[in-house]
Every structure is written in C-alpha cells, then in structure tokens.
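To assess whether the prediction recovers the assembly geometry, we first specified each molecular entity separately, as shown.
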Amino acid sequence: MRPERNAYRDALPLDGFWAAASDANDDGEMRGFAANFIAEGQIAVPGSINEQWAERGWRDCLGPFWLRREIVVPRGAAGQLARLWFASADLSARIWWNGHLLGSNEAPFLPFSFDLGELRPGTTHTITVRLDSRLPSNHPLPGIESADFTREGRGKDEIFPPVRYDFFPYSGLHRTPHLCFLPKSRLESPHIEAGFKDGGTLRVRAPSAGDGRIVLSLLDGETALVRAVAEDGNFDFSALEVEPWSPASPKRYRLRLELKRDAQTLDQIDREIGFRDVRIQHGRLLLNGEAMRLKGFGLHEDFPVLGKGQALAVTVKDLELLRWCGGNSFRTAHYPYAEETLDLADALGLLVVSECASVNLDFRRTTDATLEQHIAHIERLIERDHWHPCVIAWSLTNEPGFLAEAEYKQAAPGYFAELFAAARVLDATRPFTAANVGSRHGLLDPLYAHCDFLSLNRYLGWYEHPAQLDIAIAKLRDEFDALAAAFPDKPIFVSEFGADAVAGMHSSSDQLFSEEYQAELIARYWALIEGHQQCIGGHIWNLIDFKTAQNFRRVVVNHKGVFTRSRDPKMAAWRVRGMWR
Ligand code: GCB
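The predicted structure of the complete assembly is given in tokenized form:
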C-alpha cells in the first residue's frame, strides 16, 4: 500500500543520491556487494541509471547494477512498524537491509515492500539494491537470449540492448522508495468498489492488523455524507446521494477509514474516490449509461536524461498535452505507470486503460510458471489501481504471440482462457481486453473470444501498404466489418494506429516520415473510426516520441509521437486538435 502521511503514519522519502557500482561480470553477489561495495559514483533516485552514466558505458547495459544508501531512523519511528516500500524497481531487483537479504521482485513497474519491525530512532541502516533488466525469455515481459536471435536467423546485435519490445529497457529506481512508519495496530490495503447505479454504490473491505473497529466516513469537503462502523471492516452501501464521476465532471469524494479502539484512533487512511459505472452493452462502451467514444493516445514514461524516472512536472505536461489535443483517454502502454499519473487522471477526468507489463509474450517459451507469474502481476496491478475512478478497463497483455499463425493458435488459447478467467475473479466491475497486432494471426485471433472489447493495434499505411492510404483504409474497413459480423456485441477499439514523422520533414505527396503523411494517416483513420457503428474510438500511437533500443528501424526514438521528445507539436498534433476539439 502506498505511503501515506497523517497523524498516525509517516513516510521518509528515499530520493537523492545513491552510491552506485557496476557488475559487468555478474559476480557482485559473490564478491560481497550486498554487505559493501566500493562506489564508482552517485546515481540520482528517482531516475534511470542508463542516461546518467551513459558516458561510463552504462547506457546500453541491462545490468546488473548496484545501488546503496544509508538512512538514519527519524525520531517519530519509536513504537511504530517500519516498512521499506518500493514504488517499483525495474526491471527486476534484489534488496538487502544491513547486508541481510530481504527478498526479490520480478514484477516490473509495480510496488512491493518488506516489514522491518521496530527501528530505534537515531540508528543508521544500509539499503542495498541489485537491479537487473535481463528478464528471462519466459517472463510475461519476455527478455531475449542470443539463442533466440540465432533461431530466428537474425544477428545477435540487431537490437541493442537486446529486447523484444519497442521501448528502451531503462533500469532504475524510477519512483521514490519510502521508509514507512506505521502504527502496530493498523489498517492494511483496502478493497474499494465505488459504482453508480440508481445513486452511488460503495463496497469496502478494510482488513486490519490488531483489534479494533473500523469507522468509515465518506466526505464531501468537510461534510460527512456517510459514517458507519464495522468490527470486520466490511461495508456495503447503495443509493448514496452522490454526483457521478465523469470526464465532464470528475467529482471526487474522500473515503476515510479509521481503526479505533474505545475512544482512541489507532490508524487512518484516506482515498479520493469517484462513483461511476462502466459497462459494455450491445457493442457500446457505456459510462454512467452514456455511450463513450475514446479519443486519445498510447503513452510511455520517457523523458531525456530522466529515462523512465518520475518527474511530476513531466506527468502534468504530458496529460496537459493530451488534453490540448482534445483527448479524453490513454492506455498505460506497456506497463503500470506511477500511481501519481492515475491520481492526476482521476482529477482531470481522463479515462485510462491500464495495462499489465506484458509485451510480445513468447509462446515458444511460456510455461506454467509464466502464466502463474502473469496472473500474480495482474493481481498486484489490480490491487494497486482498482479504486481509481479513471481506470475503466484492464489490458492484460500487448501483442502476444511472436509465432506463425498455426503455432500460435495451438499454444495461445489455453493460456488466454486461464489468464482472463483468473483476472475476472479479481475485478467484476470493469471490462477486460488485450491488444492484438496486425493480421499476423489471421482474422479471428483466439484472443478475441476472451475480450469484452477488441483492441486492435493496426499499422496499415505504415508497416503494411506503406504510403498507400486508400488501400490501407479499405482493408481496415473490411476488417472492422468482418469483426462486427463475427462479434456483434463486442465493441472494436483501435488501441494503436499511427506513423513516424521526423519533425521538420515535409512533403507535398504521400511520403513516409513526413509530417504531412503522419497527419493525413491519422485523419483518415479517425474518419473511419468515427464512422463505424461498432467502433468505440481509438488511441493514436503515440502522444510523444520515445526512446527505443538501438536498431536500424529507429533513429534513436520511435517517431510516431505527435509531439517530439522535447514536447513540441508536429503538424499532426494541430490536426488532431482540430479534429477532436
Ligand atoms: C506496436 C507496439 C508498440 C510499438 C509500435 C510501433 O504495435 O505495440 O510497442 O512501438 O507498434 O511503432 O511499431
């Protein structure tokens, strides 16, 4: 559960400079780095290490890297439980406390924590982190091994650093870790479902450690709309007189949970919640009963120097650019974003398709353990984000496959069936989807049977039929019609479409990489999306140019942004603004 600061709990941010060392031979653990290592210099947290130390040869390295810092326990810690909390440690990590292994984490971009017991104020402790971005090839976010390149008949260095996905595999403590101080009798992570059906509905399950009763208050500013007590922490309300949350009016209320014993309050946590209903009905996406069209973008967490390191100013800037274009939604392609991004989306009324870190699932390598891990990551994602009103759907994976049609159709259906079934148990209030790619797997991807709405990543006019927009649009229209006939109740959503454009490159005719062609392709797709009765919208790929691994298809960045990496508009941004506002 994310750190919170109030009269009962506190949290010490662990941002700042961390001592760093490389481990090129991957023998740091053997050499006792967990207890101590000779620092080569300092790395700033939050931040990716790759760009900070590019000059030392760290840019294209996947790790392992070692980071270490000391902390002095503050005076408020007396009598409290200390919990070391990482908002994420990417892409995987092992953590030591004073040289003792606390544990490891292999879920990229998700939080995890370790309970440390009570710490004596004034004592000094050391936190050591070993980061490693070399994920195994049977991970839900599969890594790539040189044997894979050989089998695929490709040069080992064709993509460098070697990854399956089209974003740079930045390593780092990308979000500020915290040392949290919690009351020993305390609340644990609550489950909160706020819906809207004939008024507000609210279901809360608030577990606690230590006895006491749980008091729930629903506050609108200073006014308490509801106040209720439960020994077991279970609450269910309906017909609450609340305003629904929507893009037009993202009204939020404060949900306060308190743990009390007699007249004494032992703990408190607050959440800004919103009441809304999302459902798929008759081929439409309904928000509070009204049909919604999703207009927006796929994004990335990416900025020069910071890499994937969090900076709230960049978060604000990016969501403001999205709104400037007239967008109402985005997908957290291709991994869970920082929790603050969702806080901001809640406040701005933006709709979010939240995606698990899973791209190009490699069914030649998946095992039972892959599926188990994938489900565990989805569980952690849903636990973290389920209470945000902005999250309207879960995307379980992006472009699974990497196989020819026949092999894929054999390996994938069983995996999908179990994945979706397990996910649906975790959240019955939102639709589930996953993004499929092109026509690699024939017209009827087995993925579709499990999706509540179909998410299509389509690059006709770019990777297929380049510079031939008439053919591209006609083919896409045929595909929409065929899918609508095959799945009359499932809305179609174009989860990615776009074209690369190099800012400043112009052409008077259809020319790949020109700003004109990018703008034209987007406008032609949008006309099709808007005009099709079963299409609920689309997300342009991408809002902003983003850095990728090195390969001959990319000039440093993927240029499909309608803004450059420094956030300046290309022609397409103005065109989209004209279309959407
Ligand atoms: C896709 C992927 C995305 C890529 C994009 C592209 O289908 O989902 O990660 O960046 O295509 O530009 O190739």
